[in-house]
Amino acid sequence: MIELLPALEGFISAAKAMASFDAFRKNRKGDARALIDELKANSRLCFRVISDGVSPGTVIPHFVTTEFDRLNKAGFNFNLLQRNRIPHFPGIEKTDLASWADKTTEALIVNIYDKIKNVQSIHQFASGHASIRRRIINIHKRILLLLRHAE
After folding, report:
1. Does residue 71 lie in a domain region?
2. Could you give the number of structural domains in the chain?
3. Number of CB atoms found within 10 A of residue 91's CB
4. Domain span at residue 65?
5. Which of 5, 20, 25, 90 could be bridged to 36 by S-S, CB 3.0 to 4.6 A?
6. Which residues fall within 8 angstroms of residue 146, CB to CB, at 6 or more apart?
7. Are 119 and 63 in contact, with CB atoms under 8 Å apart?
8. Is 124 a domain residue?
9. How many other C-beta atoms can be found within 10 angstroms of the C-beta atom of residue 20?
10. How far apart are alpha carbons 115 and 63 in whole angstroms?
11. 95-150 residue pLDDT tens
């Protein structure tokens, strides 16, 4: 299992995280809903690697970026998902997520998708890369941080 800061521990199980995605999606419409659904699907894939022991090589081809790419190309304001900046959650200063405090929702979403695309590229050209599981864990931490931020 991955070590998470206290602010993210409520999302440690796949079921809890998926329920949180549903709550996050509930008050959104159109493009925002589509992006949240895509993030949910990618989170589910991360859980397969982290919790279920599925090989990263099996999961990586199933990561999706279609909605993000479409919205990004159209100039969508990703801050509409959560207008506030990411707060200083308890314990965040002692983790690799410390640099995200005070950053925008858009910056976090763009980073999540940049990391997904990077993992896909590594898998395509160097599938045996030693740090690929660690990279998926880092993607998942950021997705869970986004979920926590959206509450």
Report:
1. yes
2. 1
3. 15
4. 6-150
5. 25
6. 39, 105, 108, 109, 112
7. yes
8. yes
9. 19
10. 11
11. 889 999 999 999 999 999 999 999 999 998 887 777 899 999 999 999 989 888 88
Per-residue pLDDT tens digits for 27-83: 767 888 889 889 989 999 998 998 889 999 999 999 999 999 999 999 999 998 889
End-to-end CA distance of the chain: 23
Three-state secondary structure along 71-130? Answer: HHHCCCCHHHHCCCCCCCCCCHHHCCCHHHCCCCHHHHHHHHHHHHHHHHHHHHHCCCCC
Phi, psi of 41 (to 5 degrees): -60, -40
Strand, helix or coil at 36? helix
Q: What one-letter code names the amino acid at 109?
A: I
Helix, strand, coil share (%) of the chain residues, nearest 5: 70, 0, 30
Q: Cα–Cα distance between 40 and 37 in angstroms, integer?
A: 5
Q: Which residue has the tokens 């997705």?
A: 143
Residue corresponding to tokens 């590229």: 121
